Structure formats: structure tokens, C-alpha cells
Amino acid sequence: MNITDHIIFIKGTDKGRYPYSNSLLVKDETTALIDAGAGEERMRKLATSEKIDLLINSHCHEDHIAYDNLFRSKVCIHKFEAPVLRSVKKLIELYCEEGSLIEEEMTIFIQNFINFDGIEVDLEFEEGYIFDLGDTQLKVIHTPGHSRGHSCFFDEKEKILFSADIDLTSFGPWYGAIDSNIDDFIASIKKIRRLKPEIIVSSHKGVIKEDIDAKLDIYLEKIYERENKILDLLQRERTLEEITKESIIYGDGKIPESLRWMYEPMERIMIEKHLGRLFKRGDIRRVDDRFSIV
Ligand SMILES: [Zn+2]
Question: How many whole angstroms from 182 Cα to the centroid of ligand 1?
């Protein structure tokens, strides 16, 4: 689907739902592809039909980099994410602590998912870097929170933002990795709202043209809703395990049985990050391993 003369939306397999993601193709004097996780068939077709000069990665998660190795392009990613792209097994360390119960399953999962051990990174970018593609300039907007080097890309002239995993899905923000940060995520949502984009292309939702401010607000509000649910539960003392079992974030019915091993630890990490935030703010206390409201 063409968004402008130069910018083409590539919908991921299964509407770009995880484990797939949407891509953006910019065909200008320089041709650039943002993210390569739209599914094997779509990515293979693109790799053979187009000469892609730049492969720009929004961040290093498996559903965005899965087919990076199909392209003979200059590979670009934020400097904080580059080490994982160079050595994909580092991704496991972002999802589970060393020696954790799911380390082995996670290792197998990532190896099955990503067909390469690592690839060369040609360009490590930072906040404000501009990809000058001809008529089109894409500005790097560093938006940590989901991951440390998570980046969005903004075409200021056309007011089009590729927002990656600030994805505006009904699930809400995801911060289930060790390098995720809720405060940063909140700041990043506010940061992209201030850019006043007229079109947002997100990794798992697609092209969004209407009510962008309201949709960003609803998305942000999810974080506070989760926090309020946790505070409610902490009317009486509970452990991290007990709160995790309540499945506040993933919800009970939504988790495919085959992936339950992975979702529960991620729920735990996300709850833990909320507890850290609430504790720092003085809203909750901790006695031994039990939390409760102050
Ligand atoms: Zn991600």
C-alpha cells in the first residue's frame, strides 16, 4: 500500500501480529527498508525484487529482525541495540536472567526463530540522526522503554512516523524485557505525541490516520490502568508471585497454551517493574517478600 509517492507500507503476515511485524519501504534515490519481520515469503519476495540499500532496524527483537539476513543491504540500528544484532544469543539475556528456568526454552525458541547467529552492523545511529534518502529524510527519534535503543523514524515533511513497538494495539505498551523501563516508555509516548504526526505506521497495528492524539492517550492510559489494578490487589499483602498469577497484563484467556512458559515470566517482569515504580514513589511498602499499599 502506497502512503506517499515514495513510502510504501508492507503489511506483515497475520496482519503483523506477533511473531510477525509490519515494515516500511522507502523508494527514493536511496531505497530503505525499516524492519524485516513481515514473514519469510514476503521478505524473500522483497529481497529478490528490490535493491534495498539500507536496512534500518527499529530495535533488536526477534519479530523485527527475523529476516535481516536475506538482504544485502547496509544494516543500521541504534547503538544500544547493535550488540544483539551482532550476536543474536544476547537476546536471551534480555528476556531472562542467567540460570533462569526458561533459559533453555528461550535459547531454543530464539534459535528456531532467527536463522542467523549474528550479522554485521554497518551503521549505529543515535537520537536525531537523519537518513537522507533523496526527497525523503527520516529522522531517528530515540524512544526507549520497550527496549533500551528502541527507535522511531519521522518524516518531518510528510508528518509520517514509523512508531515501531509503540504500536497502539489494544494490548497496550509491552515492557517485559530486562532492559525495558516504564518511566522511559511513558516519556517516549509523550515524545512522539509532541511531534504531531499526521500518519503513524506501527509494527503491529498498521497505518493509523485518525484520532492519533486520542489513540496515543488511550495507549498510555493502559500503563496507569495496570498500575491501579496492582494497587487494588495490594489492599492486602501479596507476593510478586501472587500478583503475577492474577495475570493483570496478559489476561487469562489470551495466552496460547504453547507459549505459556514464556508469557508468565514476562508478566512477572512487567509486574516487577510496576512494583519498582510504585515503591520508588512511596505508594507501596515491602516487608520481606510481601508488598502492600502504604
Ligand atoms: Zn519489540
Answer: 14
- Ligand 1 geometric centre to CA of 288 (Å): 33
C-alpha pair distances (Å), 172 with each of 47, 175, 205, 226, 292: 32, 10, 11, 10, 25
- For residue 164, the CA-to-ligand 1 centroid distance in Å is 8
| Dist. CA 63 → ligand 1 center (Å) | 7
pTM of the model: 0.96
Q: Can you give the pLDDT of all 294 residues of the chain as single tens digits? A: 899 999 999 999 999 998 999 999 999 999 999 999 999 999 999 999 999 999 999 999 999 999 999 999 999 999 999 999 999 989 999 998 888 889 999 999 898 889 899 999 999 999 999 999 999 999 999 999 999 999 999 999 999 999 999 999 999 999 999 999 999 999 999 999 999 999 999 999 999 999 999 999 999 999 999 999 999 999 999 999 999 999 999 986 667 777 788 888 999 999 999 999 999 999 999 999 999 999
Q: What is the CA angle 17-106-255, rounded to 5? A: 45
What spacing in Å lies between the alpha carbon of 217 and ligand 1's midpoint? 20
| Distance of CA 49 from the midpoint of ligand 1 (Å) | 27
C-alpha cell of 200?
A: 503513524
- Tell me, in angstroms, the distance from the centre of ligand 1 to residue 65's CA: 10
For domain 7-218, give the fold: Metallo-beta-lactamase; Chain A (3.60.15)
User: Which 3 state secondary structure label does DSSP give 103?
Assistant: helix
